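Bumping my old thread because nobody answered last time. Still need a sequence for this structure:
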């Protein structure tokens, strides 16, 4: 279980303190598929980075299965099962797709096993398994390889920040299926930062972040009508649902 207690994140801007996240309290139960959404600049990516240990909060604490992990860095959190999917895989000269997947599993695997992960993300495994991870791969291919390595890591919590960014419509359809599969197979906690309706549609739970604050959260069935404007607002109110009327 992940618990954020009174998380704030401030930055210095022109010698003034700017609050990017303001007093966020959030508890996520195990094995949930959570989508974090909200307007641009609301603080979603910052929240994801704070959970992954890429940023350290200015205030507040983060607990993972009861342990205070606030001061642990990204590697130490990864060892405890919190994994952040980068937009593209980390590259080292000469490393192949097979090497990456094997490294992610943390044990020796055969080519067939590695191919299973690639096939699951819609890549024709035999075309990719021996390829070097470099600029000759397209953005969509790199992203799917990153997702395959995340699946191979099989960690208790995985965070994806806008996985749909920069991929074409066809790859996007495929990506949705990959996430549906991850969900079905119960790959632990999955947190996705997204604006995409099709990703919101497969969430167990939706968290709305706006203006650095947690504005709402709840099961998909409750949140979708709010997000897509199907709730009654007081007459004359032009606010979106996450704004105060
Ligand atoms: N290190 C930083 N220094 C200054 N400003 C920052 C820093 N990190 C984030 N911000 C600002 O904080 C705000 C929230 O950024 P963040 O990337 O978390 O938003 P977001 O909700 O993920 O947005 P989007 O949907 O556009 O990706 C933005 O205005 C951003 O410019």
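Sorry it took so long. Here it is:
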């Amino acid at each position: 279980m992940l618990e954020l207690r009174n998380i704030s994140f401030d930055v210095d801007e022109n010698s003034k303190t700017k609050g990017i996240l303001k007093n966020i309290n959030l508890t996520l139960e195990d094995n949930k598929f959570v989508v974090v959404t909200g307007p641009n600049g609301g603080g979603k990516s910052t929240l994801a980075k704070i959970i992954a240990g890429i940023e350290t909060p200015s205030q507040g604490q983060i607990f993972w299965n009861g342990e205070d992990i606030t001061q642990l860095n990204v590697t130490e959190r990864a060892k405890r099962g919190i994994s952040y999917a980068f937009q593209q895989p980390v590259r080292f000269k000469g490393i192949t797709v097979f090497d990456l997947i094997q490294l992610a599993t943390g044990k020796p695997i055969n080519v067939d096993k590695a191919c299973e992960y690639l096939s699951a993300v819609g890549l024709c495994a035999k075309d990719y398994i021996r390829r070097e991870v470099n600029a000759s791969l397209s953005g969509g291919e790199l992203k799917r390889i990153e997702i395959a390595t995340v699946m191979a890591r099989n960690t208790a919590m995985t965070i994806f920040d806008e996985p749909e960014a920069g991929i074409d419509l066809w790859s996007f359809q495929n990506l949705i299926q990959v996430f549906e599969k991850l969900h079905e197979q119960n790959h632990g906690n999955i947190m996705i930062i997204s604006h995409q309706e099709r990703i919101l549609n497969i969430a167990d739970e939706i968290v709305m972040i706006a203006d650095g604050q947690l504005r709402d959260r709840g099961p998909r069935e409750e949140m979708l009508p709010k997000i897509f404007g199907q709730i009654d607002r007081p007459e004359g109110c032009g606010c979106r649902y996450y704004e105060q009327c």
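The CA atoms of residues 4 and 62 lie 5 Å apart. Let me know if any region looks off to you.
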